[in-house]
Design goal:
Strand content: 15-25%
Helix content: 40-55%
Number of helices: 14
Distance between the termini: 31 Å
GO molecular function, one term: glutamine-fructose-6-phosphate transaminase (isomerizing) activity
Shape: globular
Order of helices and strands: HHEEEHEHEHEHEHHHHEHEEHEHEH
Strand order of the largest sheet: 4-3-5-6-7
Bound molecules: fructose -6-phosphate
Radius of gyration: 20 Å
EC number: 2.6.1.16
Subcellular location: Cytoplasm
Keywords: Aminotransferase, Cytoplasm, Glutamine amidotransferase, Repeat, Transferase
GO biological process, one term: protein N-linked glycosylation
Structural class: alpha/beta
């Protein structure tokens, strides 16, 4: 049931404040300001390496997870596309664990990667939305996303719930490994608990984003740029756009611009830059200037501080509230989903059932 929404995708985008909140509450005790103990088949404190594999949007949540685990818990992470992982004959590191991220829990390549690790005796955690799935069943521990059923083929709420799980686990790992003090844990838990409120505020930008989408729908190519966790988010923005609007889009690390893609820049290819005002904001600003200097059109997704300091002529600037760094990947996922959604609606594509795509990819 779509309720009063035109498409399941729209409904699922709007459900995010609620399901993110449910998911976080499963892993974090907001009142006490701590991450909840988990019954894991390994000890975060004793791990030398964590390996994550997944496909598509779930893979991109894993890339963001890597940034979190490495930064917050000083835990090295390998992140792989499952269809590569299963065949690349990765040597298994002692004292390692493996996570598999999947909404459906049935993705063939992800399952095959899980079985490769199982055979090698690696403890396995499954970040899944469907608890009765094969991937859940074959894992040692189920780390559920509490997104509820996701009907739209393009993943939205499952993605932000995957991020919510991975961020919570990274905090838990940091506490176990002694890289996060009890005071810092309290702050991080509070910051994470604020994600649903910010997500709600971002949903109110729908009219501005819808207007921008009308304009965007007349272009054939789009480039998405970001640094740090906004880099995988740029790839996710591009993936959403190509999946449902069929506009050709690429997501790049902003620093890679001058190593190739800058050759593509002209007035026919808008560049969407995801850049909250963070440590490396200035670096991303200089990338935007490079785009502008070549006649490229910039669409900037930033916060109040970023909008003030970018001092750049943009095609459009979407201003999100200032928010804690740890929740930016979760909250900034919404405007890119909304932009893809409204663009597809303008183009008249089948938003919930895009051509050639299946919700659950059970064959390789
Ligand atoms: C993108 C999308 C796909 C899935 C991928 C993995 O919007 O939905 O890229 O993320 O097929 O599916 P799951 O998560 O079910 O393993």
């Amino acid at each position: 049931d779509k309720g009063n929404h035109r498409h399941f995708m729209e409904k699922e985008i709007h459900e995010q404040p609620e399901v993110i909140s449910h998911t976080l509450a499963h892993y974090l005790d907001f009142g006490a300001g701590v991450s909840k103990p988990l019954d894991l088949p390994f000890d975060f404190a004793k791990l030398d390496r964590l390996s994550i594999s997944a496909c598509g949007t779930a893979y991109l949540s894993g890339v963001i997870g890597k940034y979190w685990f490495e930064r917050l818990a000083r835990l090295p992470v390998d992140i792989d596309i499952a269809s590569e992982f299963r065949y690349r004959e990765m040597p298994i590191v002692k004292n390692s664990a493996a996570f598999f991220v999947s909404q459906s829990g049935e993705t063939a390549d992800t399952l095959a990667s899980l079985r490769y690790c199982r055979k090698a005796g690696v403890p396995i955690g499954a970040v899944v939305n469907v608890r009765e799935s094969t991937i859940a069943r074959e894992s040692d521990v189920i780390l559920p996303t509490l997104a509820g059923p996701e009907i739209g083929v393009a993943s939205t709420k499952a993605f932000t719930c995957q991020l919510s799980v991975l961020a919570s686990l990274a905090v838990r790992a940091g506490v176990a490994r002694g890289t996060i003090s009890p005071e810092r844990e309290k702050v991080l838990v509070r910051e994470l608990s604020e994600a649903p409120r910010y997500a709600n505020q971002v949903l109110k930008l729908d009219q501005q984003i819808e207007k921008l989408a009308r304009e965007l729908s007349s272009y054939k190519h789009v480039l998405y740029l970001g640094r740090d966790t906004n880099y995988p988010l740029a790839m996710e923005g591009a993936l959403k756009l190509k999946e449902i609007s069929y506009i050709h889009a690429e997501g790049y690390a902003a620093g890679e611009l001058k190593h190739g893609p800058i050759a593509l820049i002209d007035e026919n290819m808008p560049v969407i830059v995801i850049a909250p005002h963070d440590r490396i904001f200035e670096k991303t600003v200089s990338n935007m200037q490079e785009v502008a200097a070549r006649g490229g059109k910039v669409i900037l997704i930033t916060d109040k501080k970023g909008a003030e300091q970018a001092s750049l002529q943009t095609m459009e600037t979407i201003v999100l509230p200032d928010m804690p760094e740890i929740i930016t990947p979760i909250v900034y996922a919404l405007p890119i989903q909304m932009l893809a959604y409204y663009t597809a609606v303008f183009m008249g594509t089948d938003v919930d059932q895009p051509r050639n795509l299946a919700k659950s990819v059970t064959v390789e």
